[in-house]
Every structure is written in C-alpha cells, then in structure tokens.
Structure prediction request, 238 residues.
Amino acid sequence: MLILQTLRWGAEHGHGIGLSIGARSGDLLAIEAGSLYPALHRLERRGLINSDWRVSSNNQRAKYYRLTAAGRKELALEESKWDLLVKAVSRIRKPAGDMV
Amino acid sequence: MNWGRFRWRYWIDLFRGRQLEQDLDEEIRAHIALEMQQRIDKGESTDEARTAALREVRSITLVKEATRDAWAWRTVERIMQDFRYACDTRARTHIAGRRFCRVHDFPAVYEFWRHERFFHRGTSGIAADNGVQTGGEF
Prediction:
C-alpha cells in the first residue's frame, strides 16, 4: 500500500520510492532494497504498476514505475481496509465506555 | 489468483528470462549509483559514499534472489524442484501409510498459496488466521 500510495503522485524509480516513504513517514519507516525490489516486481506481475526506463535528473538511467488503473483501484481498496483496521484497533484500545 | 494472467506472465517471463536478469542487474546498479550520488551531494567523499551505498543495499545477491522469486517462471521452477525433491524423498524413505501429496511436501506451493491468500484476501486472511473477525459494522 505504501508503494502504491507513493506512486499516486507520479512515476518514480525504486530508490526514489524508498526515499519518499522515508521522508513522508518522518524517517520512521525505512524500506530496504531487499524488500523494496521484490515488492515492486510482485506488484508489476500483478498488473498494479508498470515500468519503463528513463534517465533521471542526475543523468542516471533508471527504471521508473507508475500506477496503473488496476493499481489505483487496489490502492483505494487497501486504504479502506486499513481505515477499518485502524478503527477496529482504536475501538479495542479505547472502548466507547472509557471515552469521556 | 488470476490464472489467465499468471499463465501469460509465465510465458513472457520464460522467454524474457535473460532480459529480466539484465534489467534487474541494471536496476540494482542504478539504485547504488543514485544512493552514491545523493550521499556525494550531501558532502561525503566518493569512497565513503560507495561504501555506504553498498552497505545500504547489504547483499546484492540476496536482493536479486528475493526479486527473482517474484517472477512467474521462478514459481513454476520452484514447484518443479519441490516435486522432484518430494519424489526423490518418497523413493528413498518409503514411509508406509503416508499420503504423498500433502501441501507441506511442496514448500513453494504452500508459500505461493499463502502469498496469494494474503494479497488477494487482504488483511482478512491474516485476521482469520489469528481468530479475529475484521468484518461487520463499524
């Protein structure tokens, strides 16, 4: 979901995705290459993202990933599931009776 | 699992195996180069930046191996390996009364099944495993 969310704002290469997730989470989350690249390839295999080779701003050829229509749909679904999960956990942590 | 897509991806991956390998090599090289450049821009020396970038990636071989596992033909290849191993083990041990085709005899199939279950049923699959219901009114 984090990768799909990052790609919502436009095409990005693997390194950029890792940096973006780190920066947006206030450096709380760090995604290692060993987790990032397999995840990107799995998402691509599932048709949620696709890729093409481009030259980055510092003249380095890199593989850029972007969200597909199926990816946008999946992101919306994952977001709603996540919201439900957060709501459920919050209710368990602070039951209605405890809230004053 | 969309089996139509899987079969299609399997053939694409199989014929593009060498290209996929080259692309992955180049992708990891680009990652290291971009990490190095970012560190040099921050004021680190080239040697320091290279060492730190390689440390950040940790093991290039492991990254590649983990990424290859995401390719469709690798899944089929691993299932075939498991099948050969299961046949071999069965032939050697001759355990009486043991069913041959258990899902745990095929780790790749089991892992693939769990992975697909996770990705296609989302958190509900995990929650169900833990005995927690995520459905219902909220």
Confidence is low (pLDDT under 50) at residues 122-138 of chain B.
